[in-house]
Write a structure and sequence with these properties.
The chain is α+β, with helices and mostly antiparallel strands. Helices cover about 45% and strands about 15% of the residues.
Length: about 300
């Protein structure tokens, strides 16, 4: 269903399937934009201006995540870039691109990422990740292995101790969560077995299906997890040093600010489990960086 809000503004829900070999929300959205433009380009009316559009690989579609935003939100300027080439207004072109996104039945949305897509009058296309989609992405991150390195990532870092310390702290928290019965953590394989899925969403009647990790330190850690994954899947040559450092720092702030034990464990055990889920996601990325990328020790204790 489309929702007309103001002139040249359109709201629409879009459901996208997450493939197991790609955890990057950014790249999945770039793929969907590219597919929609290809469908639009197949129409004769698309070439009314007499110009062809410069075909781009999905990774080249301009798309960025808004910083300091309450919800995880991405924005693309592709319609603004193509409007002069195709002699159409950015808003009209953006609306046409969004019009080719597939509509999916609600019953099909269980294993997909869903977004609220908005075309802004200036021609920006905005994708807001739903709470359910963010929960699904985090669960996939906890369960799915990252790919082998492609050789495009520059891993150089001078001081590994903060990263190794953060990894060891993750393992310590996960081991304690296992011993206290909050989670089932396999310390040998370093894998979270249960609960599956983790309770990322509230399950009470008043706030059911709402994301329950709202603390600024939780939100910052999630942002760094997104940054790390999107950097790993970026087609560009990338230096991960700053990204991994920010992830480690964000985790330590989260560790200092967000309690798991005591009253949180006894009164809101699902919140404690969700926070341990963030710890497990962080541990997985730190482990991948240390062992897969650098080939160095990822200590579980210091």
């Amino acid at each position: 269903m489309d929702y007309k809000v103001t002139k040249n503004t359109l709201l629409r829900y879009v459901y996208l399937r997450v493939f197991s070999n790609c955890l990057s929300i950014r790249y999945l959205l770039q793929q969907k934009i590219s597919e929609s433009i290809d469908l639009l380009a197949s129409e004769e009316s698309f070439y009314a201006g007499g110009s062809d559009w410069d075909r781009r690989k999905p990774g080249e579609i301009p798309l960025y995540r808004l910083k300091n935003h309450v919800a995880v939100t991405y924005r693309s300027a592709i319609a603004r870039q193509l409007s002069s080439l195709l002699k159409q207004s950015p808003a009209d072109l953006a609306t046409q691109i969004v019009g080719y996104f597939p509509m999916t039945r609600e019953t099909d949305a269980q294993n997909r990422l869903d977004f609220l897509v908005k075309v802004i009058e200036s021609g920006w296309i905005e994708f807001r990740v739903s709470d359910r989609a963010l929960a699904f992405w985090l669960q996939q991150l906890v369960q799915t292995s990252l790919p082998p390195t492609s050789g495009q990532i520059n891993p150089r870092i001078e001081n590994l101790f903060p990263i190794q310390y953060a990894h060891a702290r993750c393992c310590s928290l996960l081991g304690l969560g296992h011993r206290q019965g909050l989670i089932n953590w396999d310390n040998q394989k370093m894998h979270l077995l249960a609960p599956n899925p983790l309770p990322w969403l509230n399950n009470d009647q008043l706030s059911r299906f709402q994301f329950q990790l709202h603390h600024p330190a939780e939100q910052d850690l999630i942002a760094q997890l997104l940054d790390f994954v999107e950097t790993v899947f970026s087609p560009c040559q990338t230096n991960l040093t700053k990204i991994i450092t920010r992830l480690g720092d964000a985790f330590l702030r989260f560790d200092a600010s967000c309690r798991i034990w005591g009253e949180v464990k006894t009164q809101t055990p699902e919140l404690a489990q969700a926070r341990l889920g963030l710890v497990a996601a962080t541990q997985k990325l730190l482990l991948w960086y240390l062992q897969e990328l650098l080939g160095v020790s990822a200590p579980s204790a210091l």
